[in-house]
Design goal:
single chain; Methane Monooxygenase Hydroxylase, Chain G, domain 1; 87% helix
C-alpha cells in the first residue's frame, strides 16, 4: 500500500511537470509569434490552450482522490496542496500565452502596425526565464533558486514601466498607432503578470520545503 501511495504522489507531480512544459511551450510560441508576426504559430498557441486546461482539471481530480483515500499529512499534504495551487498558476500563465497570441492577430488588423520595441521582446524573454526557473525550483525543491525569482521580478517590473513609456510616446507621436499600441500595452501587462505567476509558484516551492510562507512579490 505504501509503495502504491508513493507511486501516486510521484505521478501527480510528474503530471504537473508535464503541464508546466506545455505552458512553457505555449509562452515561447506566443512570444515567437509576436517577434515574427506569425499568425499560424499564434493560432497553434490558441488551439493548444484547451490541453492545458484539461491538464489542470486532471491534476486537481487526482489530488482530491489521493487526499480522500490516503489522508496524507505533513510534507505529503503540503506537496499535494501546493500542486493544486501551482496547477492553477500554470493555467493562468497558459491563458496569458493565449492572450499574447490573440494580440498578434489583432495587431495585424489594426489601422497602423507598430514596431515591437526590442525591450518588449526582452520582457518576453525574462518572463520565459522566470517560468522555467520556477519549475526547475519545483522539480529540485530548491529554496534558494525559488527565492532568486524575487530579484528577477523586480527587473521585470522596471522593464514593464519602460516599455509602457515607449508605447505611450509612440501613440503621442502618431495617433493612428493607438489601436496597435494598445494591444502591445496589454501584451506588456500580460508578460508582467506571467512573471508574477512564476513568483507565486516559487512561493509554493518554499512552502513545500519549509512549511512556511514567504512573499517574493511584496
Amino acid at each position: 500500500m505504501r509503495e502504491h501511495y508513493i507511486s501516486r504522489l510521484r505521478e501527480v507531480q510528474d503530471d504537473l511537470v508535464r503541464m508546466g512544459s506545455r505552458v512553457e511551450h505555449a509562452l515561447a510560441g506566443a512570444v515567437r509569434a509576436l517577434e515574427r508576426w506569425d499568425t499560424e504559430l499564434a493560432a497553434g498557441v490558441i488551439a493548444g490552450d484547451q490541453q492545458i486546461n484539461e491538464a489542470r482539471a486532471q491534476i486537481e481530480e487526482s489530488v482530491r482522490d489521493i487526499i480522500a483515500t490516503q489522508q496524507p499529512v505533513a510534507r505529503d499534504l503540503r506537496v499535494l496542496l501546493a500542486t493544486i495551487a501551482i496547477a492553477a498558476e500554470l493555467e493562468r500563465a497558459g491563458d496569458y500565452a493565449r492572450s499574447i497570441a490573440k494580440k498578434v492577430e489583432l495587431c495585424l488588423r489594426a489601422p497602423l502596425l507598430v514596431e515591437v520595441p526590442p525591450e518588449l521582446h526582452r520582457l518576453g524573454t525574462l518572463a520565459q526565464v522566470m517560468l522555467h526557473t520556477s519549475l526547475d525550483a519545483f522539480v529540485q525543491l530548491d529554496v534558494p533558486l525559488a527565492r532568486s525569482l524575487s530579484a528577477q521580478d523586480d527587473a521585470v517590473d522596471e522593464l514593464e514601466d519602460y516599455v509602457k513609456s515607449l508605447l505611450y510616446a509612440r501613440i503621442r507621436e502618431d495617433s493612428r498607432t493607438l489601436e496597435a499600441a494598445a494591444f502591445l500595452l496589454d501584451v506588456t501587462h500580460v508578460l508582467e503578470r506571467t512573471a508574477d505567476r512564476s513568483t507565486n509558484i516559487a512561493e509554493r516551492v518554499i512552502y513545500i520545503a519549509t512549511a512556511s510562507r514567504e512573499d517574493l512579490n511584496p
